[in-house]
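Supplementary notes for students who missed Thursday's class. We covered one full example, reproduced here. Read the sequence, then the structure, then the short commentary at the end.
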Amino acid sequence: MEFSRSQWELVFLFCAVYVTWGLTDSIQAPFFPIEAEEKGASPSEYGAVFGIIHLAMFVFGPVFGRFMPYLGVYRVFIFGVLGTAACGCLFGVLTYLDNTWAFLGCSYGLRLLEGVAEAGAWSSVLTILSNEFKDHVTYVYSLTQASFGFAEILGPSLGGTLFEYGGFLLPFEFSGILCLLVGLIIIFRLPYLLTHSISNRSSVSSSSETGSKDCLSEEDYQSEVASDAESVESQIVRTKCDKSKKLNESSSAANDYIRLLNSPMVLLALLGTIFSATCQGFIESFLEEYLKIFNLSVTQIGLSFLAMSVPYMIATPLWGWLVDKWVQPELVNPIGHLIIAASLILIGPVDYTTLEPDY
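Structure (token representation):
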């Protein structure tokens, strides 16, 4: 596969921002339960703080996808990047809240807002990648997910170390500011990279117009990407949207989503996402509590999360390449779920395996 210089730079920048998003998601795993219990919260009360971000992404992801042509891909991306960075920084300030319910309420609220911001950011990135890498979307998107997995590796261990040196505040300020800096770089570079890529594609497809066209303006690109996003959605649901019939637009959109949800493949993907996010939420919530029996430091607990994140980082681009080239996603999906189910049996381990907990 041959990518232009601007496309490679685009991939690199998106991978970088996914690293920062992964840090904001995972950096609190080894020490947040310690802080919450010091505030008087029990595991059943603070446990959902980890997973509620996935609920927000699940709810608002389709919303952003539906209204992306009207909101604008670039504007949604800016909202996602800045919103994620702001929530990351503000989360560290919660250490100054001594009241248990104020601490928990603000924790849930910030994680919900972060989930909304990330839903917009992820939807906009997927739209851009679908437009820029039409024939290699799976592979390129798997690279961004591998970067996210790398951050999931780095986050807990880095968070544990920063917590021991700077308390609850330092890890969140570090991840939030890093997310802001990388996000600002992409925000300023994105219009040039995308319009330059469109200009190159235009010159290749129409040699007669090579010398007569300059790079498209940001507004022109927004229009083109929005059109592409709409066409991708129409292709999935196998319907044709007539923009001239504005009176029937709402009912047509509702019918499209009904057909989309009636698709077995879409339902399989949704159930798989829910299952994976639920399992990850369980591990993030209770692994730190469980590892207390070994009398580990916060840094050691953070390193324990590497066992899940390292294989994720390695396997994601591999599965993406296989799905692009050889294997049907219908086969990969249940294989992944069976592996997750088997791993959960061994984490405890459950009593009927006759295995003893050992670190």
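Commentary. The two ends are 44 Å apart (CA to CA). DSSP finds 14 helices and no strands in the chain. If anything here is unclear, bring it to office hours.
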